[in-house]
Amino acid sequence: MQSFPSSLLNGYRNFMSGRYVDERERYRSLAEEGQSPTTLVIACSDSRSAPETIFDAGPGELFVIRNVANMVPPHEPDGQFHATSAALEFGVKVLKVRDIVVMGHGRCGGIRAALDTTSAPLSDGDFIGKWMGLLKPATEQIQNNDVMTPAERQTALERISIRNSLNNLRSFPDIQMLEESGNLALHGAWFDISTGELWVMDAKTGDFTRPEV
Ligand SMILES: [Zn+2]
């Protein structure tokens, strides 16, 4: 039998002697009282874009959904297996989060795969290809844009993907209702992994600017 990765065991040892000691009481009360995060973040699975790290969040502070390219599918109550929609349902209906942040990031492999017209599916299931199909109309327009460089196309689609996810969030009746009544706010953000810069989407224009921090 393969042994459990030693890097993880070492990390766990550090956690128990460091952060856990500092936050023992917090963990204990979170266990007894349950979690009540007020922010839900949808981020990419990419190992470089962990919301808890970027927003310096402790246990119980963020309810996080991660998938390839931080995407939200449209509301489709079709009986299929919708992992992202299930987590959204829990965050909105049970935790009653007040803010939802869709956070994309630079050099996203999922976005790169969507733009790459030459690559073959990674497996018979072509799960990534099908998943990135959520962005197909925008992807096709960007792919055919000759005046943009590959890097510009990549950044543009990363940001369009965030707006697309926000639009799809609003296709969920509960989310739309809560937003309209002022009980839930939707936000977009884009993290530049090469510089550490966080860009925040202007809700009105859809443009991204760097906030004062
Ligand atoms: Zn990514």
TrEMBL record:
GO terms for molecular function: carbonate dehydratase activity; zinc ion binding. SMART domains: Pro_CA. Zn(2+) binds at C44, D46, H105, C108. The keyword Secreted does not apply. Its cofactor is Zn(2+). Keywords: Lyase, Metal-binding, Zinc. It catalyses: hydrogencarbonate + H(+) = CO2 + H2O. This is carbonic anhydrase.
